[in-house]
Amino acid sequence: MHEQTLELRGIRISHLLTYLVECGGEIKGQAAEEPGREDLPLVVCGNQWEAELMREETVTITSRFHVNAVFIRFTSEQEDVLTQLLQRFRIKVIRVGG
Questions:
Q1: Can you tell me the distance from the alpha carbon of 74 to that of 82, in angstroms, rounded to the nearest whole number?
Q2: What are the start-end ranges of the H helices in 10-78?
Q3: Residue 71: CB partners within 8 Å, gap ≥ 6?
Q4: Residue 14 CB burial class (10 angstroms; 0-12, 13-18, ≥19)
Q5: What is the mean pLDDT of the chain?
Q6: Residue 16, exposed/middle/buried by CB under 10 A (0-12, 13-18, 19+)?
Q7: What is the pTM of this model?
Q8: 90 CB-side CA count, 13 A
Q9: Tens digits of per-residue pLDDT, 61-86?
């Protein structure tokens, strides 16, 4: 089993779910039955891969600036499947600074 955990900051859970679906995944469990429900953990399954949105934390950058941090664990039996998924997913979560 191949596994990679990412910490993503400043991106809403609903957006992350959309990106995972766009990568070929399907939301499983109660979140699939009740769209908009974002009780963690959430699981998205694709062809030979799975992504679990495990937890969300608030990260304090300064005394007045706080962002969310979502931890996602990606797993696959095949390393190349996981590598391709992560490449596609990272493109979707790129944020350009100004």
A1: 7
A2: 13-22, 30-33
A3: 5, 6, 7, 8, 53, 54, 55, 56, 57
A4: exposed
A5: 92
A6: buried
A7: 0.88
A8: 11
A9: 999 999 999 999 999 999 999 999 99
